Amino acid sequence: MKRLVTALSCAVVLALATSAAGSQTLKAVKDRGELICGANGTLAGFGIPDPQGNWTGFDVDFCRAIAAAIFNDPTKVKFVPLTAKDRFTALQSGEVDVLARNTTWTLSRDTSLGLDFVAVTFYDGQGFMVRKALKVSSALELNDAAVCVQQGTTTELNLADYFRTNHMGLKTVTFATGEEALKAYESSRCDAYTTDSSGLFGERLKLAQPTDHLVLPEIISKEPLSPAVRHGDNQWTDIVRWTHFVMLNAEELGVSKTNVDEKLKSDNPEIRRLLGVEGQYGEALGLSNDWGYRIIKLVGNYGEVFERNVGQGSPLKIVRGLNALWTKGGLQYAPPIR
Amino acid sequence: MTDEAHSVGHAAHRSRRLGGIAVQVALLLLIGGLAYGAIVNAAQNLARAHVATGFGFWQNTAGFDISQTLISYSASSSSFGRAFWVGLLNTLLVAAIGIVLATGLGFLVGIARLSHNWLLARIAGGYVELIRNVPLLLQLLFWYNAVLKSLPDVRESIAVPGGGFLNSRGLFLPRPELAPAFTAVIAASLTGIVAAIVLHRLARRRQERTGEESPVLWPTLGLVCGLPLAAYVLAGQPLTFSVPEMGRFNVRGGLEILPEFAALVLALTVYTAAFIAEVVRAGVLSVSSGQSEAAHALGLRSAATLRLVVVPQAMRVIVPPLTSQYLNLIKNSSLAVAIGYPDLVQVFTGTVLNITGQAVEVVAITMAVYLAISLLTSLLMNLYARSTAIVER
User: Fold this and answer.
1) DSSP B167-227
2) Which of A34, A323, B76, B101 could be B269's S-S partner, Cβ–Cβ 3.0 to 4.6 Å?
């Protein structure tokens, strides 16, 4: 009886205990000693463990940059693979500190899910992949086609909108994970596979005969991919946001992983502020002043991260396109560090 | 016992009873307080995290497509509420068909296991042991891949006699289009069935009274089949078929049976039938052997003994565990998420939850719906069980 009462009162205390207040994420991460990052786990080029079990990818490198800024060690990250269905619940519940999982920034997600999107790290759009044997050269010829799609994504909604706007019949086959959808496409359960265009190139590599498949030229939607954090913790949002801007500014100023040590001695005031030689911008964020130097030295600038994960230094070979710097005609533009 | 001892005994008994009641009331308040505290805590956390709450999402436009809909549904104009009903109907369809098929197969296998034929009994026993011990999810994936891989590609469809197609996208049959006059045919068939039941009752009563059997077979056939046929002809043949035709990518029109649906029904049927077989076997073994010996002594053969003497008595033991197996089947149908069949969990707790982000409301609704379905099923089964109970005279 006594043990029962003790157990019940413990349960009461636990049930009524409130969760940690929102503004403590940085402190919690530092206490824990590592960053917990929500990643994809199956998308080549963005977030996937290699055969040795080390995580690689565009979003993975972004999380490593945050860890480098906080801990001066890009390996102090734990990656949690999340499907499209449970990614938001994982972030909302506090299971991960930041969600870097090729997630599209939309109004409903920004408002009703309790998340904040920090900055567009990758400008993408939705496309289709079909077998070359079908002799289809445009998405407008896909009337009455069966399309495999992952559940719970903007892809599913855009697909329905596109086919309705163009008065085409549609049969959707939805799956819980991208892998199942791709497998079904490969076994000819459906005629076309749709996801973000960057993902199409990565997924095509997983097929048995990548050259048998064609990525159609139409981009049917805007998919600005952005990492997400929880509402309410402004300091953490700033840290994550400015990590991206540091990497962009570094590329703009010509500072890269290879030459960052020489650039420490530069006279250029912008570079000096970027690397923390001048100013106390790091401390304003709650980090050390050389946080910018740490990110560039341990991970690299935006261009380096892009090229080695999804660009010409990778099997995907995606061109910069919209993701080039604003000085080169693209959309990547960072506010100045001052 | 003296009066004094009596009153002391009464007082002790009463105070113990009051003490017991006090403890129960205290426990009730504690549990109520826990539940209330948990709900308030959840609401506060959701509000602090600025997650939307409430049921306003029900009317919002869904925006996504569903591959199998028993009622009309469109991505652009249907609401999340409509998607919920589509998913629920799909679940009920799978559950209903699964229950019927699993019961049939389970009874067959259970009785086969008790057969005197050595090979038949061993095969049935092997089936039960194999199926019971492999997880249902694995069996479902096996059936799905087996069904998909064995069917030909769309462009090499097998032509089904009657104007249909069979390929890896599904089985396409001519869809019956019912004119409004068809209600006359439905009314006629219902009348025929009722009349046939009345006829059987009358024949049974006559047999009990006079011992003579009345010819039932042909009048039954005439009533159940002939009446609707006559109504059909008289109403001007109100039934046409829309034939499926082969398009550039897919078959268009007609009645579509998805391979996901077939795989789910197959897996659920085979799996649950193994458990039902054991329940039936237990029920048949529970009937004392004296019953079948007496039936044999009366000259009844094995099949008639089973049908008329053993199984009706075994039903008393079979029905309660059978209810559990039906509830298991209904809940196991939620594994449809693994193969992409659009049942309630896949559509509502999957897609709708992800789009609206309101996990608490959506999961609570889904749990309430499954609870309602299960309670209804067990209520109906308990009503039936009451009819098989032994009545003391």
Assistant:
1) ETTEEEEPEEEEPTTHHHHHHHHHHHHHHHHHHHHHHHHHHHHH-PPPP-HHHHHIIIIIH
2) B101
